[in-house]
Amino acid sequence: MAGSSPKTARFAAIETLCRLQRSPMPVTILFEQLAVECALSGSDRHLAMNLIYGVLRQRQHLDRIAGLFCRQPLKKLHPFVHQALAVGLYQLFFLDRIPASAAVNETVKAMKVVRLPQRLQGFVNGVLRESIRQRQDIPAPGAPDAAGRPVLNHPDWLTERWERYFGRQEMLRICQVNNGQPALVLRLNRLAVVRDAFCALLAEKGIAASQGACAPDAVILPDYHGPIRDLPGFAQGFFQVQDESAQLASLLLAPFSPRGRILDACAGLGGKTCHLLELTAETQTEMYAVEPEARRLLQLRENLERLHPQSPVTIHAGSLQDFSATGPAPFDAILIDAPCSGTGVIRRRPDIRWNRQAADLDAYQQTQRQILDQAALLLAPDGIIVYATCSLEPEENRMVISHFLHRHPEFGLSDCGPLLPGPARDLVADGCFQPRPSLSADGFFAARLVRRLI
């Protein structure tokens, strides 16, 4: 039962983390619900998300600190107390701009909202203040635990499989990348603005920007952490938020035929749909987008209206199977950005590492196989399918492709390299585009499947 204390950014962060432990929903959705409930201002929203994402990226390290000052196992603590400790410790050890006294007092104050007993408020207050007094003796992030193992802030099942597939040093590197805060990456709308003009707008606002490492239309904002809508050019449709790896995937559908027909079979928020509209602006291409989920469908429509209000896209609000039943004409190219575990984008969505299990991979694989088989039925005789995921896991990538090629011998795997910019060609292995997480791009996988005339 809530008390009369205000629902602050700290309360929203703690409560979101509590709800995340009970729900498989993405943390962004859980937080948005709470942000409305708490009537958070823009600055409080930013602080709360900083705290939530920070705790998720440093969960095991923060638990190790808390364990130094708790007599009972953390699993036996009241959930709100456990998350309050994590939020408080994250402020103390990772946010230098917040005074220690404010970090402690505001965290304890958040506990009053749910009317926890005074003894529990005192317990959190005591642990946080003791951690300040003993700061010099607390292990640094990543330092080995008592058993000599590094604290990686990832579940063991995930690090063990990455070590098995990629080797120990690469696994450690991926974890390190995932534990940092990624830069904001934009894809410029080449039909609305040129890079120099856009960067000049950013400079007028004091926003630093640089060119992407691989994608030709990418602009990186390394220090910007404000609302996307506040960036210059947002309302005019000058850009869309999209990682470089995802930007490169759309290039693999080339060459684009005059008066061709393209299907974005898993359109999501419309990032790749919009990109394809730009890439095919001079070809009079018919564009179709399929998206079954209501929230993503709404954002898809909003993004299309903002970036390409004059470009018609036929949107199907349903599954690919339902769309197939409408009897559409064959497509020259089909993009499948398949539902997946998302282990390649953990640095941007840190909740993924904690709400996925190894058993989930089989379920995702079954869905991915079904979508690919369905897409094959919609493809023209000499058409192209680009299959993509933001997963690092072989079960969702190479194994799906191998299964598809075995079932569909009329298809062949086409080398992605020649269609990518020079710097990105080093990220191609066995003909597939498969970058792993880095400071410049997310982990990704894309395969180009061509139907051969036989």
Structure overview:
The chain is an alpha/beta fold and 454 residues long. The chain folds into four domains: 9-137, N-utilizing Substance Protein B Homolog, Chain A (Orthogonal Bundle); 152-180, no CATH class; 184-241, Alpha-Beta Plaits; 244-451, Rossmann fold, CATH 3.40.50.150. 44% of the residues lie in helices and 13% in strands. The protein has helices at 9-22, 27-38, 42-57, 59-69, 79-94, 100-111, 118-133, 156-166, 168-178, 195-204, 244-251, 271-279, 294-307, 320-325, 352-355, 360-377, 398-407, and strands at residues 184-188, 210-211, 218-221, 239-241, 261-264, 286-290, 313-316, 331-337, 379-389, 411-414, 428-429, 432-433, 445-451. The strands form three sheets. A seven-stranded mixed β-sheet has the order 7-6-5-8-9-13-10, sandwiched between helices. Strands 2-3-1-4 form a four-stranded antiparallel β-sheet, with helices on one face. It has a two-stranded antiparallel ribbon with strand order 11-12. A hairpin with a 6-residue loop joins strand 2 (210-211) and strand 3. The N and C termini lie far apart (68 Å). 44% of the residues are buried. The mean pLDDT is 95.
Name of the CATH homologous superfamily of the largest domain: Vaccinia Virus protein VP39
Rg over C-alpha atoms, rounded to the nearest angstrom: 24 Å
Number of discrete helical segments? 17
Structural classification: alpha/beta
- Average pLDDT, all residues: 95
Helix content bin: 40-55%
Main sheet record: 7 strands, mixed
End-to-end Cα distance, whole Å, is 68 Å
Oligomer: single chain
